[in-house]
Amino acid sequence: DTGVSQDPRHKITKRGQNVTFRCDPISEHNRLYWYRQTLGQGPEFLTYFQNEAQLEKSRLLSDRFSAERPKGSFSTLEIQRTEQGDSAMYLCASSFGTSSSSYNEQFFGPGTRLTVL
Amino acid sequence: AQKVTQAQTEISVVEKEDVTLDCVYETRDTTYYLFWYKQPPSGELVFLIRRNSFDEQNEISGRYSWNFQKSTSSFNFTITASQVVDSAVYFCALKTSYDKVIFGPGTSLSVIP
Prior knowledge:
The complex is a heterodimer. Chain A is an all-beta fold. In chain A, 0% of the residues lie in helices and 48% in strands. Chain A starts with a strand and ends with a strand. Helices cover 0% and strands 53% of the residues of chain B. Chain B has no helices and twelve strands. In chain B, the strands form three sheets. In chain B, strands 2, 5, 6, 10, 11 and 12 form a six-stranded mixed β-sheet that branches. In chain B, strands 3-9-8-7 form a four-stranded antiparallel β-sheet, with no helix packed on it. Chain B has a two-stranded antiparallel sheet with strand order 1-4. In chain B, β8 (64-69) and β9 form a beta hairpin. The A-B interface holds A 31, 33, 40-45, 48, 55-56, 89, 91, 93, 95, 97, 100-101, 103-111, 113 and B 4, 31, 33, 37, 42-45, 47, 50, 52, 91, 93, 95, 97-106.
């Protein structure tokens, strides 16, 4: 399968614990995005990487959230001291682009569903 | 401000009926892109169509058609002769600068056999 993959697909954790999710983009894609989707809502942009550089972060990304893409390939999203409000689907997407003004289709992964008890 | 509104939260139709999903967007940018995505019960987002702001030509793809009207800032999606497999949540989305995509709240479509 050459699509975007995410691991794990489901994560249940207790409030206060740290969790880390991984995203493997399509191999030739230089851009990687994280979104959060809560029940009944559309995905909300969290952050975006071009290669290893994190170029934009949403206000939704509090200081408990950190994302990395150290080698410009896979990315990790860590949530520290999880809260019940963090329960959501975390979606990763990737694309290939060279210009900020053009659109480059984003291909989405299956998501990681986080439940914080 | 950039915003996408999908006023229809849930729609139910009987199989073979036509259904139109509404999308209204807001942006001050002159260059932008609009999309529709489908999210079936499995959860994965499936890209359906992209339109840029300079191309108002309507598009038809099989049973799907899209009506883009800049004058009313709308990008509506019609499914003709709906089928049970069309049951899903449909998201309209907007991209302006960079690749940040703003999604609408989604419309949940149920096609009843």
